Amino acid sequence: MKKQIVLAALAIIFSLGSVFAQDMQRQTPEERTKATMEKLAPLSLTADQSVKVNTAFLEFYTARQKSMEEMRAAGSFDREAMTAKNKELSDARDGKLKAVLTEDQLKKWKEEIEPSLRPQRKQQ
Known about the structure:
Blueprint: H1 2-23, H2 29-39, H3 47-74, H4 79-100, H5 103-117
Helix pairs in contact: 2-3, 3-4
């Protein structure tokens, strides 16, 4: 009887783990761009700004995904190299945003919206 209870509990744990793992799948650059654009709603972008900002984020997420795939294909994951590449890509994206957004919009982006896009790490 105890074995059956333990096996049932393990089955439940593994099935819940697979359900949560499906939600954690990687998003495509298009999905990330769409989610980011939804978070940019408080900026009240004009139609022209929206198109340009959407393009900037799509290029950013596509380039970031490509660099991650290249690093995985090479078989070596150099954390410092990836950090440097991400910084380079972020700086290029921010340069494009600076050309499109007003000063107030850019300030709100940097202070409120951009930090909310970074994954939160658990404190240990």
